[in-house]
Structures are given as C-alpha cells and as structure tokens.
TrEMBL record:
It comes from the Bacteria. SMART domains: HTH_ARAC (SM00342). This is AraC family transcriptional regulator. The keyword Transcription regulation applies. The lineage of its organism: Bacteria, Bacillati, Bacillota, Bacilli, Bacillales. Residues 170-267 form the HTH araC/xylS-type domain. It holds the Pfam family HTH_18. It comes from Lysinibacillus agricola.
Length: 280
C-alpha cells in the first residue's frame, strides 16, 4: 500500500505543515509543546484527548493546545489522510495579540469540532504553504483562519482554564524537564513525591493525563526535535536527549512523530523545497 508523508516548514509564517496520506499508524498517548490544528481528509479514527474519547471522521477539525495529551488509532480498517499545522506558542501569542489586542495564549475548549466549516479555509491555507505561494496571500489567509478559530472555539482570555495541577505533580514535571538527560526511574519520582509507585502513576495520570514515563519520553522527543532541527546528527541527538541508544530513540521518534529522525531532519535541511517521503 502506498504511503505518503509530507512536511514543509514555512519560513514566512514560521509554522510547520504536515500531510499524511494512506497511513495506518497508531499514535500513543503523548503531547506537544505547540498547537496542533488539523483535519481529517479521509478515514475514521478513535481519538483520546485528556482522558476523553472521540470518534473523528472526514471533515472534522482537530485542535490541540500545547501539552494536551492525546492518542489515536484507526478503527475502520481503512487508511488515514490528514493535514495539520503546528504552531509554536510564541507565534500563536504574537498573532493573537495582533488580532485581539490582548497578550495571551488562546485555549481551545474542545479538541474536536465535527464537520467544521473552518476545514475549508484550513485546507486552502495548508495548500498555499505546500505550494510556497507568496507571503501576503498566505499571511492574510492565516490571520483570517486564526481569527475564526479564536471566535468560534476558544475560551475568553479571562476564563482560560489553568487546570487542576497539584503542586506535587507540578514539581515532578519541573524535575523531569530539568533532568531528562539523566536516568529517571519511577522509584526516584515516588520517593520525591513520598508516595508508592502505584499511587504516583494514578495521581500523575489524573493531573497530567499521561503517565510519568510517557511524560519523560515526550520531553526527550521534543528536545531531540530541536537538536535535529539544528543539524545535530541523530545519534548525538539521541544521547543528548537522554536515550540510551539510537535504536531506542528511533523507535520512540517514529511512534510519536510519524517520521524517522533522519526523515524529520531532512525536512529542516531542505527548507527551500517541498519534500515528500513515499514507501510501499
């Protein structure tokens, strides 16, 4: 079966555009440090986001806030066609301030908007990025799209939900983020929290929506992405981000991102051309 994975980084807008066609890959529970806004072109999937389950179909809009944990898998035995934009928080904050006059990060109220009218403009914007159209047209469409999303799907700035994080889990997250290059065990975290391992996993998952181990691996993958974007060889990126070996690193990277480390790095060394990977 022909599979196609396309990634393009737009230097004008400073955002990533992904397109996956004909894939069957299951993505485990993980999160990103950036916004993910996409839609299903074809296929049906079971999506879990922040411990709530959704069935998503063709035409459904997907909006993940930074750190929203999510997982998805195919359920109709057919392949998935999917497009998305990845937007870093600093870019979203800048655009939001220009649109609303307020300095804040918008929070999407729900990760799924069924049969959203916004998928049409997202498709057009995504195609402009892939076709490398002039900046003025892309930027105008991008701002119109974000304005529609803010108006339709986000909380007012004074009602943004700060979450139910406990101080203990927050401290553990900060420790993981500071020491991800080191060997961190569940025993270590349990001692820090003064809890048994089972209680820690249950509390951490309830607050963060993801297990401590998955949180650690996601932090490592996100750090590895930054290194790969800077041209660091995959083996070095694996070691610098806390993975014991390249094989282990490659497995998690493919599982979380849908690309191998070399494929991901290739797209960032070829910013001036659209790059497509096909495999049988």
């Amino acid at each position: 079966m022909l599979e196609e994975r396309t990634v393009h980084f737009d230097n004008d807008l400073q955002i990533e555009a992904y397109r996956f066609c004909g894939i069957m890959q299951k993505f485990p529970n993980h999160f990103h440090e950036y916004y993910v806004i996409g839609f299903i072109e074809s296929g049906q999937r079971r999506l879990t986001c922040k411990n709530k389950e959704y069935i998503i179909n063709t035409g459904d809009l997907i909006c993940f806030n930074p750190l929203d944990n999510h997982a998805c898998e195919q359920i109709d035995n057919k392949t998935l066609d999917y497009r998305c934009l990845n937007i870093k928080p600093e870019i979203m904050r800048k655009v939001t301030k220009e649109i609303t006059g307020k300095d804040y990060l918008p929070q999407f109220k729900t990760p799924v908007a069924y049969l959203s009218e916004q998928t049409s403009i997202l498709h057009n914007l995504h195609q402009m990025i892939m076709n490398e159209l002039p900046n003025d047209e892309k930027q105008e469409t991008f701002y119109i799209f974000i304005k529609q999303l803010i108006d339709e799907y986000t909380e007012p700035p004074n009602e943004a939900d700060s979450g139910a994080k406990t101080e203990m889990i927050k401290n553990l997250c900060q420790y993981i983020e500071a020491h991800y290059q080191e060997r961190i065990t569940l025993d270590d975290l349990a001692r820090m929290a003064n809890m048994n391992k089972y209680s820690l996993v249950r509390a951490f998952t309830r607050v963060r929506g993801i297990t401590p181990y998955r949180y650690l691996q996601t932090i490592r993958i996100n750090e590895a992405k930054k290194l790969l974007e800077q041209g660091v060889p995959p083996l070095d990126a694996a070691l610098y981000s806390g993975f014991g070996d390249q094989s282990h690193f490659s497995h998690f990277f493919m599982e979380f991102i849908g690309l191998t480390p070399k494929q991901y790095q290739y797209f960032f060394t070829k910013l001036d051309e659209q790059s497509t990977i096909r495999k049988d």
